[in-house]
Predict the 3D structure of the following.
Amino acid sequence: MPSPSSRCRFDCATTGNRSHGTLRRHRGKLGNRQGDRTATGREGARCLSTWPRPERLEDLTLRNRRIETRVLDLCDRAATIACRAKMAGDPIDGLINNAAIQHNVRFDDPHYDAGQIADEVDTNLVAPMLLSRLLLPKTPGRPFVIVNVGSALARYPKTTAAVYSATKAGLRMFSDALSVQHQAGAVKVVDVVLPLVDTPMTSGRGKDKVSAAYAAKEILRALEPGGPRIHVGKARLLRLLEIIAPPAAAAIIRKL
C-alpha cells in the first residue's frame, strides 16, 4: 500500500455504516473484475472504503490488499468534508453510496426519537448527496460513475420504516436529477433497486431474501454500460407490477 504522502488513484469509493451495508463482505470484488472496460471495474482496480468502526476496516484490508480504508462516520458532515480534503490529490473515478440505516418501527412508536430520525436522514440521503458533491470531478469531461443503492420502498412505502422509505424516495429522485444534469456529459448515475437482502438489518423479517453476495454482484452491474436504473431479483417483478397492477405492487411492499 502506498505511503500516505504518495499520490494514488482510487477506482471506486464505497460506504458502510452501522447497518451492515450490502457490500460489507464483498467489496473486494470491486478489485477483481476481469475484462471490464469501465474505470471502476477494470482489472487491478483499487477501492477506498469507509466505516465508522476500525475493526471492520482492518478485516476488510486483510481480505484484499487493493482496498484502502478510512474510519468515517457519515453522520459527521465536518469529518466527511475533512476526509475528502485529505485526499485532494487522489483521483477517484467512482462512488457507490451503499450505507443505510433502517429503524423498522412505526413513525409514532414511542421509542422512535429525534436522534434516530436524524441518523436515518443523514446516513441515507444527506451523506450520499454530500459525498457525490465532494467527489464529482472538477475537470469537465472526466468520466465518473455514481451508484446509489436504492430500494423498492422508494416507490411504495410499507407500514413501518416511514423515514427510511422517504429517504430512499429522495435518493431515487436525486439519482434522476443528477442523470438529467449530466445526460450529455461524462458522469454516469445509476439507481440500483434491491429486493429484501439477507443482512443483519433484515434479520427476522421477510422471506425468500437474496443473499448479500448476489446483491453485491448485481450492484457491480451498475458499473457497466447500461441504463440509469437496475432492478435486482424480485424487484424486476415489482417493476412489471407497477405497470400492469400498481395496487398489487403496493400491497406486496406493505407486508414486508
About this structure: The chain has a mean pLDDT of 76.
